[in-house]
Amino acid sequence: ADMLTEHSEGLLRCAEAEDEIANRIEAAFPMDESRRAELEAPLPGALKPYYDVFAPLDVWDQLRIQATAERHGAGAWERIAGNHPDPKVIEVFNSCSELELTSADYLDALLAEHDGR
Fold first, then answer.
1. Which residues are CB-contacts of 7 (< 8 A; sequence separation ≥ 6)?
2. Are 90 and 81 in contact (CB under 8 A)?
3. Helical packing angle, 87-115 and 8-28, nearest 10°
4. Is 59 exposed, middle or buried (0-12, 13-18, 19+ CB in 10 A)?
5. How far apart, in Å, do the first and last CA atoms of the chain sit?
6. Percentage of residues of the chain with pLDDT beyond 90
7. How far, CA to CA in Å, does 22 sit from each of 17, 18, 30, 109?
8. What is the Cα–Cα distance from 48 to 74, expressed in whole angstroms?
9. Model's pTM, two decimal places?
10. What is the pLDDT of residues 33-81, one digit of tens each?
């Protein structure tokens, strides 16, 4: 969003959707609070390699990868939903898939606009 300020609002909506997915999954599968620190400990170390993969790419290539990842994420939620016995949890998974697809659609439209210039 910082690199494409003219599109920051939409890109930030995509980031908010990722946070919302995490919130929905955490609500569907409550964490044992006594283990939160242990389970979250690896997360800060995982961020650097994630960002390092994207660093050498220009922002448009980063968005292409992200759009594809969003579609893969949507498919993953759908596959998980297809194997889960609880209808309420299936609804959560399907709603997460919808959020992923909304972000993917936004990114694809942004890329199409950019590529069409």
1. 1, 110
2. yes
3. 160
4. middle
5. 20
6. 94
7. 9, 6, 11, 25
8. 24
9. 0.91
10. 999 999 999 999 999 998 999 999 999 999 999 999 999 999 999 999 9
